Amino acid sequence: MEKLPLFLILFSLAISMAMAARNEVDEWFGNLQHAKEKTTRLHFYFHDTTSGKNPSAMRVAQAPSTKKSPTFFGQINMMDDPLTEGPEATSKLVGRGQGLYASAGLDEVSLLMAWNVIFKSGDYNGSSLAILGRNPTTHPFREMPIVGGTGVFRMARGVVTFKTYFFNSSAGVAVIQVDVVAIHY
């Protein structure tokens, strides 16, 4: 009997896994009419570091005029920030904040954020929330919408609020308090 090439075996396995995941989602949607809405409140911190040996965010693009702009207009950063229970970097990791932020304000530092919160532990392990909105970073309190989610947070909507806990521009470090109110099924 001839052996199947490894890539063919892996491809078949990937197709089988995708079909199983699709069936799970189809079943979930089939039961949706009987599901009750839940409200989940979460509190954690994200650590955005743009300098040092292991930055969690970095500039990936900028406009020709960005260096002259007091608001860094036109700069785009990619991030994969740790999310922790407490404000200390050594606090328990609960997930990762992955996405991008772009300086979109001409008159004030205001970011357009496309941010995915990926949970790596606890009841929400493997689930995610999708956030898309404006983050005027100099305001003491910022609010952005939850536009979706996966896993436990399928079809999520709600609000995420940010409050700067610590910021040092010369060190390239920001610690942001995050509060989530997510409505989901």
UniProtKB/TrEMBL annotation:
It comes from the Eukaryota. It is found in: Secreted, Extracellular space, Apoplast. Residues 1-20 form the signal peptide. InterPro entries: Allene_oxi_cyc_Dirigent (IPR044859), Dirigent (IPR004265). Keywords: Apoplast, Secreted, Signal. GO terms for biological process: phenylpropanoid biosynthetic process. One of its GO terms (cellular component) is apoplast. Homodimer. Dirigent proteins impart stereoselectivity on the phenoxy radical-coupling reaction, yielding optically active lignans from two molecules of coniferyl alcohol in the biosynthesis of lignans, flavonolignans, and alkaloids and thus plays a central role in plant secondary metabolism. Belongs to the plant dirigent protein family. This is Dirigent protein. It comes from Vitis rotundifolia (Muscadine grape).
